[in-house]
Amino acid sequence: MSRFKLAVATRTFGQPVKRAIKTAAQIGARGVQLDVQNEITPASFGASGERQFRKLLEEFNLSVASLRLPARRTLVDPEFLDERVSQIRSALEFAWRMKAPCLIIHPGTIQSTDNSN
Known about the structure:
The chain is of the alpha/beta class. The chain has 3 helices and 4 strands, in the order βαβαβαβ. The protein has helices at about 15-25, 45-60, 80-95, and strands spanning about 5-10, 30-35, 65-70, 105. Strand 2 (about 30-35), helix 2 and strand 3 form a beta-alpha-beta unit. The termini are far apart.
């Protein structure tokens, strides 16, 4: 058996997340990437909802390979920065509970602080 495991982003299927999980399993994926802003949100789950969601993944022999948190603004944009940091913190806590090994964010262009140029 191959040590390589295929994971797919459920959002790419254009289906509700539960149906996308089934589709991922049908094509042979072993993991899924979930969009925690547009597909599911950490706030939409209580403890029992999280257990049910993990059970759904187990039924299809899937794990959460990663969570994706798209951003409308970069981390260097000072407007609403506290809100974005709070959103990242919430997503990280959700990733921990879902046993996701990573959270994917797009920080934007970070300016160099090197003044030697």
